Amino acid sequence: MKLIVEFCAGNAHFGTDKALKPLEEHPHISVIEYGCLTNCGQCYLAPFALVQDEMVEAPTADELYLAVLRKIAELEGQS
Length: 79
What we know:
It holds the Pfam family DUF1450. By secondary structure, this protein is an alpha+beta fold.
């Protein structure tokens, strides 16, 4: 089963491409970028992504990438 990681295009000003692009290389991850994920308050404050509909956030895009990988590992451990 592919895990779904969603990004908001409105959050790109934080450099979330640094997290999005390498995740696209993983064969078991489906990366989707939407124009808006309707999390405007969070979108304004910090880089974030939704991993299987769960919010993952971090102070920087580089840290977001690592946080997403940790969340994926956590979810894979549960299955």
